[in-house]
Specification:
It is a single chain. By secondary structure, the protein is an all-alpha fold. α5 runs antiparallel to α6. The chain is elongated and about 50 Å long. The chain has 2 domains: 162 residues, no CATH class; 45 residues, no CATH class. Helix content is 61%, strand content 0%. The protein binds protoporphyrin IX containing FE (HEM).
Length: 231
């Protein structure tokens, strides 16, 4: 494959910029507005408390897309109570604070590794150089982001091997494995650039994308319940 055609390089750069812009827009969204309650959070001041609304809160069951799997907390029915304490036992406060960036960070590995898998499929189908570069860029961003997300996850959840809830333990170890796997994918990707042998890389990439997406599913299930996608 010739990788030096200037026009293809320009298109690849454009695709990379679009991918970066998309990724930044994900970050700008931040966590879901109903993801974290202040209940049981004496460290939060009045400015952190949602303003009192004169209108009665709509019960979850009556919302178009109710959040399932959790009892609606009293007071603000649109809020889901986090399943872990803050700061987690044994985590120094600065690290626990950094851990709060876990929810916005997790969008990157999920989106970028999925995009890498899609781009690789398109490369296999079309052979276009554009997708060669798009895959490499997405793998780099996705893998580094997976490492960051998992590290922040440990700060967020606390340093322990098992949790009271099996769902949390599952998410913890799926996420840790996913970030280690993503680093392997990055290594294989760079090796594939040099040797042009992409079979092992492809296997690792497709399974890595599935692993990180499954991790995301279990992360969401911690907050919204396992039956969140029930029809
Ligand atoms: C690539 C790795 C990971 C991904 C993609 C991921 C993904 C997610 C997602 C999508 C959520 C739900 C966020 C929301 O809806 O606001 C979440 C929550 C969470 N994750 Fe992860 N995660 C990863 C690794 C980890 C690890 C390694 C740990 C712990 C060691 C962890 C601990 C947590 C905790 C504590 C929550 C919030 C639960 C709650 O507030 O009740 N995550 N994660």
């Amino acid at each position: 494959m010739g990788h030096r055609a200037p026009e293809a390089t320009r298109v690849a750069r454009l695709a990379s910029l679009i991918a970066l812009a998309l990724a930044l827009s994900f970050l700008a969204q931040g966590p879901m507005p109903n993801a974290h309650a202040h209940e049981g959070r004496p460290d939060l001041g009045p400015k952190d408390t949602p303003p009192e609304s004169s209108a009665p809160a709509t019960p979850l069951a009556e919302l178009d897309h109710p959040t399932r799997g959790h009892e609606p907390p009293e007071g603000d029915a649109t809020v889901v109570t986090p399943t872990h304490p803050y700061p987690p036992e044994g985590v120094p406060r600065p690290l626990a604070w950094l851990g709060r960036f876990h929810p916005p960070t997790v969008n990157f590995p999920i989106a970028m590794l999925t995009a890498a898998a899609l781009s690789e499929l398109l490369l296999m189908r079309t052979g276009r150089e554009l997708f060669f570069h798009a895959t490499r860029f997405s793998v780099w961003v996705g893998s580094v982001a997976a490492l960051a997300a998992a590290t922040l996850g440990w700060f967020f959840a606390g340093f322990r091997l098992a949790d009271e809830e099996w769902l949390m333990t599952t998410h913890r170890w799926l996420g840790t494995s996913a970030s280690a796997w993503a680093l392997l994918v990055l290594f294989l990707c760079e090796r594939a650039v040099r040797t042009a042998e992409r079979k092992t890389f492809r296997l690792a990439l497709f399974s890595g994308a599935a692993l990180v997406t499954t991790t995301g599913f279990f992360g969401g299930a911690l907050l919204y319940g396992l039956d969140h996608y029930a029809w």
